[in-house]
Amino acid sequence: MIGEVHYWRDLSRVLEAVGEELRQPFVEVVLQILQAKGEEATNKVLAEDVAVFLREKARVIKGLKEAKWNDKYMKIIEKPVKTIEQAKEIKEIVLNISALMHSLHSIYLNSNFYKENRILSFIDRLLMCILSKIKLKVGLQFTIKQATAGGFENYNASDLVTSISVLHKFQESFFMRTRELTEKNEEAKMGQSFYRKDGLDFLAFSYSEAFANANTRVYSRAEKIEQQVQYLLDLLKFY
Q: CB 46: neighbour CB atoms within 10 A?
């Protein structure tokens, strides 16, 4: 998750530097000269090159706007995300999970670029991170080892109680419930960023021509998260 936060920070810096170069006066002068030359019948190749340059320039400007807005929002969640990812104790997660979920909800409501798919992807990975921490503390093998080492009568179940508390807070703060998701086909559709990073699906989805299919995946993914949290809560109650 922290990689996603830093991705937008770094991308914003890179595109800002590129954008500054593109805004230099001499670039516009040279471009105008090339456009004039490209209008001549014998310079079709030059005209095509100029057209490609203009398209790429527009993409950089569009990408810069997206990266800067995303960086602005990611700065808000950087501290709790880092704390949760680096947490050694479950109680550290308890103290940060509600605030982080509320911040993600605010981003979802206010951002033009972090909507259903990206937010759900982030929450999905957040849940996986939390579960990996819980597994280290209350996994069956670890629990048996800890209990038998000190005697079952001396077994400290605080990690179990804290883990249940974390999941309850996550469940209460989860705002992408399937019953509350509504069709948004009438809303302005956001164009997908042209920047991609292999293996990181937080860049894989956004509003696009395949909006209907993406919307279906939103519902199934949200439902999966809800069911998984409830299943784990039910499971931990039997410990």
A: 15
Each residue of 191-213: pLDDT tens digit? Answer: 444 334 444 434 433 334 333 44
- Please indicate, yes or no, whether residues 94 and 200 belong to a single structural domain of this protein: yes
Distance CA 169, CA 93 (A): 10
Residue 72 shares a structural domain with residue 104:
no
Range of the domain at 48: 1-86
**Four-point Cα dihedral 228, 231, 233, 237, nearest 10:** -160
Lowest mean pLDDT among 10-19, 21-30, 158-167, 208-217: 208-217
Contact 137, 163 (CB under 8 A): yes
Assess whether 95 and 62 both reside in one domain. no
Q: Are 50 and 34 in contact (CB under 8 A)?
A: yes
Residue of 226, 229, 230 lying closest to 181 (CA atoms): 226
Write the CA distances from 104 to 67, 94, 177, 185, 223, integer angstroms: 17, 16, 14, 22, 18
149 and 33 belong to one structural domain: no
Is there a single domain that holds both residue 72 and residue 127?
Answer: no
- Which of 228, 203, 201, 205 is CA-nearest to residue 218? 205
- Report residue 155 as tokens: 């077994």
User: Looking at the structure, do residues 17 and 109 belong to the same domain, yes or no?
Assistant: no
Does 50 score more than 90 pLDDT? Answer: no
Residues 146 and 70 in one domain: no
